[in-house]
Amino acid sequence: MVSVGKKLFGTSGIRGEIGSEVTAELALNVGKSLGFYLGGEGTVVLGYDTRTTSKMLEHAITAGLVESGINIIKLGMVPTPLVGYATEKFSADTGVMITASHNPSKYNGIKLWNNNAMAYTPEQEKIIEDIYLNKKYENTSWDKIGSIEVNSEIKEKYIEDLLSLVNIEPGFKVVIDCASGAGSELSPILFRRAGCEVITLNSQVDGFFPGRNPEPNDANLGSLKKVVKATGANLGIAHDGDADRMMAVDETGKVVDFDKLLALMAAEFGGTIVTTVDAGLVMDVELEKVGGKVLRTPVGDVAVADAIIKNNASFGGEPSGTWLYPDFCMCPDGLLSGIRLANIVSHKGPLSKLLSNMADYPNIREKITCSNEEKIIIMKNMEEEMTKAFDDIKEVNNIDGVRLSLNDGSWVLIRPSGTENYIRITLESPSEDKANKMKDICVNLIKSHIN
Questions:
Q1: Residue 426 in 3-state DSSP?
Q2: Is 356 a catalytic residue?
Q3: What is the pLDDT confidence band of residue 1, given thresholds at 50, 70 and 90?
Q4: Are the beta carbons of 53 and 106 closer than 8 angstroms?
Q5: What contacts 24+ positions apart, CB below 8 Å, involve 401-410?
Q6: What's the pLDDT tens digit per position in 245-296?
Q7: What whole-number distance in Å separates Cα of residue 150 and Cα of residue 315?
Q8: Which residues contact 235 (CB under 8 A, 6 or more apart)?
Q9: Which of 3, 33, 68, 101 is flagged as catalytic?
Q10: How far is residue 419 CA from its own chain's centroid?
Q11: Which of 79, 188, 374, 413 is deepest in the core (most CB within 10 A)?
């Protein structure tokens, strides 16, 4: 979906509705643009998720790349993290994943990865966008077109490398909900080979996502919660459509707090941790216990990855469940997050107890529907309007939207979504009553600008 200030790329690659925003023609020309950017030579790793339109887009971008002289290694239907992993392992020039991640079935998109498995930066995307919009690309001659290779062996290497990072106690039972997405094959295999007893939900590949919406949030995980509790499982794991994210259900059948889950993993690594401006205060509290330090970036795995590299951080992630592990690969990995969480719980659990020891802060996450044009209008004077609406402001952070920190520990963030037609409100306060009042102020500020 087109993001604020951009014509093609959002905060997580290219994403939009099929037909109106994302088409086979777009994919063809993005392939040509990427081929031109790569100088008409080199190798691209290509994968796609389970959406009904993914093969269509894969065929189109393949044609554009090959016509530009680029060789392709096709992985087929795979999780996004495998594309990042394979791009690095094959020393390819770029990785391409056809996916719309957690968006509903009618959406699809394209995300690009560097040869170090980190997603393309905004600067790189801007160059691709310029080539695309100005049609600077060109076809190679008939005798220099690229080749196409299919590789399925890399899946086994990926599983083996993930298994080398954990040692799960025997008898651990896990329920995995793959949303009928790209993790449906490999995630259950990974957990079984780690020695877990595995129960699967929505692990039949289906681009209509019949079992649930692919976004792994509380509203969509009713079946997972019930099955975890009914079967006496130690843990429930939920993936999104391309399995770069992971959310968890504890042994009581409760979807765990996003911020607490992120803080739990961060404390396991310690040192310098990178998270985003929408992450809660529990991260700071838990890292302080282990002598760690928290750095905040704009929302998006690219910003997190960049900060991890620049600051030699040990771990980074977003409350959404998009987590990065520099000791393994710089591509967000929901399978690795799931298996590492299972490892922690099997040795230190149960999960509900581990999280109950953390501080609670009333947390509200709200989203208000608005068009991309309205986002620009709403955000234009948002900092000025928020500073007038709130008292006792300690700090103003505008690296991504506007985040105010107040002297009583409360904080509030208003930012435009880079992947959907929403303005997002995120806030915390020591007082639930104050949290609700802060939310009402922000909702009124935003709605006052929407026609």
A1: strand
A2: no
A3: very low
A4: no
A5: 401/277, 403/277, 408/434, 409/281, 409/361, 410/434, 410/435, 410/438
A6: 999 999 999 999 999 999 999 999 999 999 999 999 999 999 999 999 999 9
A7: 32
A8: 172, 173, 174, 175, 228, 248, 249, 250, 251, 341, 342, 345, 349, 351
A9: 101
A10: 11
A11: 79
